[in-house]
Amino acid sequence: MNFLLTEEQEMIRKMVRDFAKKEVEPTAAERDEEERFDREIFDKMAELGLTGIPWPEEYGGIGADYMSYVIAVEELSRVCASVGVTLSAHTSLAGWPIYKFGTEEQKQTYLRALAEGTKIGAYGLTEPGSGSDAAAMKTTAVLDGDDYVINGSKIFITNGGIADIYVVFAVTEPELRHKGVTAFIVDGDAPGFSVGKKEKKLGIRSSPTTEIIFEDCRVPKENMLGRLGEGFKIAMMTLDGGRNGIAAQAVGIAQGALDASVEYAKARKQFGKSIGAQQGIAFKLADMATKIEASRLLTYQAAWKESEGLSYGKESAMSKLFAGDTAMEVTTEAVQVFGGYGYTKEYPVERFMRDAKITQIYEGTNEIQRLVISKMLLAD
Ligand code: CAA
């Protein structure tokens, strides 16, 4: 067993860490306050090749592995979880299903644009009436001539409004429930497509989350992704990888909170010595660091399995479950380490705490992760 990262993975970590420090961190608090997505940051990520880390060069990517992508999401989230999830949804929720299930033409048209970062990707599964029960979706797609006509709406779409390419799931054969769901690639300028309400959120506030609406939205039948009726499987397989991206985001958030806490614990003096020299705080830091390391190992293990072509659905769900819960715990403790100052916007830990909460909710709540893990355990 080898726990060392490869030279390429270390190089990508260093590049993303430097970029995050220089280009992302300085405006993180301000973008959070203003709920502002910054396209320039995304464009700079594209210049560095970060928008296409795991995709082959023939599709505009940099041909690195899935682990490198996970490391990039972790490093970005260490300073700004919003930028982290922008890349995560773009790569694992939009790029991945096109890479795995797209035709050569779809890959050249859509995956290339995503990989090169000229376009942003998003994923539309959740509806007002179907969150955890994804198969209960109501959005329909009906063939009419050479187009599918989509009607319905999707909510809680990460990258909603800023995305140009949406991977969307709709019912094509209602009587078949999940076997009647089909995936489509929808252009952001398709007729009948519009962006609805933008959510006002507790955390990840500079990552836009919106409703997307389909009113007789016409999509050429060539934009069907995979086969008719294969959509639910595509949605689930996509989430297998996506959940690992969220685990990486959670590890990054927790690490960012620990970094800040360690620095503060060394500098802040009470009772004549630094608070870090007092066991109440020192032991807290030790527990935080240990849980983060365990989360990181689970996250890297799932990413490694993905890179090696091994099955990783269970490990990915475990990584999100553990890392998400850890991020919430660690960031709450970080605020405690900072005391009254931690509760203010003078320090980043309150933002980390607000951002951490979503990692227990999206891409399947942590209760759903337990369902996924236990189903796999009992099926073995
Ligand atoms: N890979 C391949 N196939 C899978 C699969 C997987 N990981 N999981 C399920 N399937 C297949 C099953 O094998 C089964 O196929 P057959 O009928 O051919 O046997 C079929 O899918 C149905 O499986 P289930 O009976 O297990 O399905 P279910 O209806 O009970 O639902 C669920 C299972 C795990 C609860 C699923 O509904 C689920 O994951 N829910 C959570 C949804 C979710 O994560 N939403 C997040 C949306 S994205 C987001 O958060 C926003 C963002 O932008 C960040």
Approximately how much beta-strand content do the residues carry?
A: 15-25%
CATH C-level of the largest domain:
Mainly Alpha
The low-confidence runs, each spanning 5 or more residues with pLDDT under 50, are none
Rg to the nearest angstrom? 21 Å
Averaged pLDDT: 98
What is the CATH topology of the largest domain? Answer: Butyryl-CoA Dehydrogenase, subunit A, domain 3
Structural class: alpha+beta
Total helix count?
Answer: 10
CATH-level-4 superfamily name of the largest domain: Butyryl-CoA Dehydrogenase, subunit A, domain 3
Number of distinct beta strands: 10
Summarize the amount of helix as a percent range: 40-55%
Largest sheet: 4 strands, mixed
Strand order in space, largest sheet: 1-4-5-8
Order of helices and strands: HHHHHEEEEEEEEHEEHHHH
What would you call the shape?
Answer: globular
Please give the alpha-carbon distance between the first and last residues. Answer: 25 Å
Second-tier CATH architecture of the largest domain = Up-down Bundle
Bound molecules: acetoacetyl-coenzyme A
How many domains? 3
Domain Acyl-CoA dehydrogenase/oxidase C-terminal: 229-377
GO molecular function: acyl-CoA dehydrogenase activity; flavin adenine dinucleotide binding
Domain Acyl-CoA dehydrogenase/oxidase N-terminal: 6-117
Cofactor: FAD
